[in-house]
Every structure is written in structure tokens, then in C-alpha cells.
Amino acid sequence: GVVPSSVPVHTHAPPSLPPPPPLFSPPKKTERVRQTTGKMSNLAAFYCLLGSQFLSMLGTEVVKFSLRIWTYQQTGSVADFALITVASELPGLLLSPFAGAVVDRFPRKAVLLVSDGCAAGATVALMLAYQSSALRPWHVYAANTVQSVMNNLQAPAFSSTTTLLVPKEKLTRVSGMYQAASSLCMMFAPALSGAVMALYGVQGAFFCEVSTFLAAVAVLIYTPLPSLAADLESAGAHRPRGLGAVVRALTADVEQAWRFVRQRPGLLALLLLLAVGHFVSGLLQVLLTPLIMAFADAQAVGTVLTCSGVGAILGSGLLALYKAPIVHKARVVVRVFALQGLLLVVCGCRPHLGLILGVAFAYMALIPLNRACREAVWQLKTPPAMQGRVFALQRGITQITLPLAAAVAGSLADQVFEPLLQPPGGLLAAALGPWLGMGPGRGVGLLFIVIGLLTLLVALLARCFPPLWNVDHDLPDAVHSPPAPSPAKKSE
């Protein structure tokens, strides 16, 4: 995927879209980028931005894990514990397309500051309630709802700002850096949270979140970020009055983002491929534990999850160190998708812990490469003034498949596949039992094989669809590398 291809380049671009209707201030037709000021280069500004996001993510994950433990200790209810996850994911996903429209209407730096501030404000409210012994589980649900919405504001704002800061040939590499930071947060936040709670209780977790927020905001305020000229030139323009006018303008922005994707078959096919991939991930999150617990114990489950986390960090690190540009990014996505399907087929064949460990490590090590390439395609092919809406729409459509997959995974395993390999009388016990084994957990193994084969089939269909396979060449780039600072600015 890194060698230039001889595929001919077609210059026919899809029809352009009209500018979005005004919300709080109508964007201009120009998409000029306001260069960062001062002595800091664009890449240095990106590294500072990445550092601020790392601090923000770390504090958020620490307090989120601590509050989950606190809620379960207070209620003893698995249902109440599960509601925290629902409140942390669902509201932001439902509002994600509208959040992207807001990102396109305001300077990205302001959006990042406001989203960080609101999320920290929710944590401060919980801290005050805890100090006064008034904290209740529903307070945690409300705070997680606020943070979910703010996270879905922050994600498209960060991605679209990255496009303005980083040369396009380095987008996949810096995506690896971001994913490495995210993986480190997800891996070490539970351990850090447990240590903080053991020493200082929940109050210590609140203090950790507030401290990381202040540090992240200080870095973000200090860092000069470029903006679209439209963000700065539209101040004081006409603003629609009334909630109805604002809702109509936001809805029109979302519709425009959908038209943009729909009119480009390569991007639409990539979106569908990502939705399938996230659906598979949702199935695996539910099915992996039953697959292992059928022949091993909870410690083995923890070992597999740790091994998969190490694989994700290693994959992100290697991607961050890889300096050569990846030319055929969409092709890499399809090939990785096919390889992951093959790994799932292998994983379901035998109940062997070493086999599952190897598959989990390899599967997660491939995810950073897949994610970096697909994000780079979206960043390069989407105009900067539309990136907030398009990125948020793509995020909402793909992420909503996770709870849908979790909802059907249990029924598929318990009611369909497990009875097929149960002796005696299992419908497929005689035919597949000698190869896959019989008894508890082997139906889940068969389900892994089926999921892997279907994944391979989807990858084959993607390979045979030219608009997706050749999207890197056939669809012109909508963004270019940011300009280097002028010599005058360097000498200041």
C-alpha cells in the first residue's frame, strides 16, 4: 500500500455543493486558512494540541472509571452500572451530526476550549455534590451525558484542526501518534484510578480530573491554531432568532453533509465499510469473554485483554515511527479488513488460549493502521469548511452500530449458534464437531468463524468496487498541505 500505482487518474469531480444556510453567522465561500502566529510552527502547534488532548483524555478516563466503581459500590446493581455506559455513549452519538455542524460554524480552538470547560464543569458539580454528601447515581448519569455530548464536539474539532496543521503526507503518521496516546490512556487510566482511589478515595479522582483539565486548557490557550478565514470574517453578521431557526439551520447543515457523502460513491462505500467494521467490533466485545470462559477462567480473559491492549499500543507506535507516505490508503483499509476477517476465522477454530492470545494481539495491532488510513482519506477528500459536519456524520453512523451489535450478539450466541454444536442432537455436531469441538463455547467459536467469513466477503466486494478501491486517485484532494511560515515570521 505504499508504492504508487499505475492506475490512471480521473479528474472528474462530483458536483459541488452550495454553501450551508446561516446558523449563528453565515460562512463565507472562501476557505482561506489563517496561519498560526508567533514562532511556533504548525507541527509544533499540533504536538501541543495533542498533548492537551492527552491530558484531557487521561483525567476524564480516571474519573469515569472511579465513578463507575463508586456507583456499583453504592447500588450493587448491574443495571445501574450499565446505565453509566449508556449515558456515556448514546447522547453524544445521537447528537453527533449536529455537533459537527456547530464545529463548522465556530473557530475550532473555541470549540475545544468550550467542550473541555463544560466537561470539567460537570466534574466539578459532581465533586461539590460528593463533598456535601449529596452525590447520587443519577447525578453521575447526568454528568456523563454532558461529557458524552462534549466529547462528540471535541472529536471532529480535533480532526479538522489536524488537517489545517499537518502536511497531508504526514496525516497517517500523526494519526498513529493520537491513537498511541488514546491507547495509553485507556490502558493506564484504570490502574491510575485504582491507585488514586486506594490512597485518596473518589475525591482524589476528582482532583486528578480538575488538575489535568487546568493543564490541558493552559496548553491549548498558549498554542496558536489556524482558523478558516470564514470563522474570523463573519463576526457580527446576521444571526437567526429563535430556537426553530437554529434547529432548521443545523438540520440543513447535516443534510448537506449527507449529500456530500452520497454524491461521492467512493466515500459512501468507505462509510458503509466502516459501519460493518464497527458492527463486527461490537459483536466481538460481547462474544470474546464467553469464548474464553468456556474453557478458561477470568484471569485468562484479563490476560487476553491486556495482550490486545499491548498490540494496539505497539501498532500505534510503529505507525507513528513509519515515515514513508502511504499512497493507497483506501486499499490498505480493505486489505486490513480482509486480514482481520481471516484472523477471526482462525480464532474460532480451536479452544486454545495461546491461539486466542496471538489473534487478539495481531487483530488489535492492525486497528491503528486501518483507522489512520481511513481517517486520512476523509481528511484529504473533505473541504476544510465541511469537515466538522462530515466527520461527525461519519462518526455517528459508524458508532451507532456498536450498541446494535451488542443487542443482537447474545441472542445469536445463546439461541442460534450454541445449540448447533451441543451433544447430543446438535444440528451440526456430527458434521463440524470433529473439527471445531463440541460443548459449551463451541457455538460461539462457530459464530466467530461465520463473522470472519462474512468479513472476508465484504472485503472482496469492496475490492471489486472501483470507486472505493481507487478513491485516493479518482477523487481529487480537497485540502493541501498548510503553508510554511514566511522567513519574516521565522526571524521574529
C-alpha Rg, in Å? 24 Å
Q: Please give the alpha-carbon distance between the first and last residues.
A: 42 Å
Mean pLDDT metric: 81
As a percent range, the share of helical residues equals over 70%
Spatial strand arrangement across the major sheet: 1-2
Classify the beta-strand content into a percent band.
under 5%
Shape, principal axes of CA atoms: globular
Helix/strand order: EHHHHHHEHHHHHHHHHHHHH
User: Which blocks of ≥5 consecutive residues have pLDDT under 50?
Assistant: 1-13, 18-37, 229-238, 485-492
User: How does the major sheet shape up?
Assistant: 2 strands, antiparallel
Number of strands: 2
In DSSP terms, counting alpha (H) and pi (I) runs of 4 or more, how many helices?
19
The class by helix and strand makeup works out as mainly alpha
Structure description:
This protein is mostly helical and about 500 residues long. It contains 19 helices and two strands. Strands 1-2 form a two-stranded antiparallel ribbon.
Layout of SSEs?
Blueprint: E1 33-34, H1 42-75, H2 78-105, H3 108-131, H4 137-165, H5 171-200, H6 202-222, E2 227-228, H7 229-233, H8 243-262, H9 265-293, H10 298-321, H11 329-347, H12 353-381, H13 387-399, H14 401-417, H15 429-436, H16 442-463, H17 466-469, H18 471-474, H19 487-490
Antiparallel strand pairs: 1-2
